[in-house]
Amino acid sequence: MSRLPKAAVRDEALRLRAMFEATGAAPVDPAILQPAATLLDLYGEDIRARAYVTADPLRGEQMLRPDFTVPVVQEHMDGGAEPARYTYSGEVFRKQENDETRPNEYFQVGLELFDGRDPEAADADVFASIAEALQGLPVKPATGDIGITSATLAGLTLSDDRRAALMRHLWRPRRFRALIDQFAGRKPVPTHRKAVLAIMAQGGDPMQGSGIRIGLRSETEIRARLDRLAKDAVQPPLPASEVDLLDQVTGLKDVAPVALERLRDVAVDLPTLSPAVARLERRFEAMAARGIDVDSLPFETSFGRTTLEYYDGFVFGFSAIGRPDLPAVAIGGRYDALTKVLGRGAEIPAVGGIIRAEVALHLREKEGAA
């Protein structure tokens, strides 16, 4: 995608923001320079490799805004967890491996909705508002639900530590799969771990005579990790029947009505899934009420599991038809847990989404030329 004039992209961003303002959203403008500590706490050190970080002599580490959602949530929760509707437009900054197809500085336009009165209606509201903003462009939607996988994990016969490990790696499908195979007994225990466990089983101390410690972990942290490994070693393997149910859920990809019916079937054997399936059904009904063609709407349980890390429920995206080289035109989803983390005890259900203004403008100009 050729670079468009910055002024033209900014105008497109403002045009899209005006559409969201017309739905009742109040415009907000978070600072470009954000405290790095908050983002590092949320994302871990992984974000450091993708963000621009600098040091301020008074404020400590600062980060050029990698997205809008976190600072918008922070500002909202600082002011109180009340229902609200916001929109914004501006630049975000992320390091990229290929600067030709993924610019490191680009405009986002977004809509964020904080309201717990009817979460499924709020999901449909944000999705439909973004779909309307993209009307006339050659885009296709995708939807998913991180909460479906979470609810499935809740029903499996796993220890709390194993379930927590899977939840930590929910957004890293390869690591998630490796853990499932490990917990199901399908992977051999690494030789070095066997040796450590053998020492502990005989009452020995694997740290004795281990030499100088290298790294940031304290001895207390290392011993806590060793205790978790010992407890995990005596856990029974995850039954093959449950692995099969999990695979059915995470591998599900179909149009919405078919996906809903298949999830209902799985919920018969996995009752913890039923509330999440009921929420999914209400969401589809709310979407239909907003004019979305739910009968042809794609649904993929695992959609967003590699890119939408702070979302914990409904997720969606819009991509350019026939243009896999372009970034997603829009992405979004529900992030209830994020409001709790940033609210320091307060929380409110929230859902939002963003449009990449440059990609939208590129498609609009191509359509105009066609």
Automatic annotation (TrEMBL):
Species of provenance: Meridianimarinicoccus aquatilis
Phylogenetic classification of the source organism: Bacteria, Pseudomonadati, Pseudomonadota, Alphaproteobacteria, Rhodobacterales
Domain of life where this protein originates: Bacteria
One GO CC term on file: cytoplasm
Transferase as UniProt keyword: yes
One Pfam family this sequence matches: tRNA-synt_His
Protein known as: ATP phosphoribosyltransferase regulatory subunit
Transmembrane segments: none
An individual GO BP term: histidyl-tRNA aminoacylation
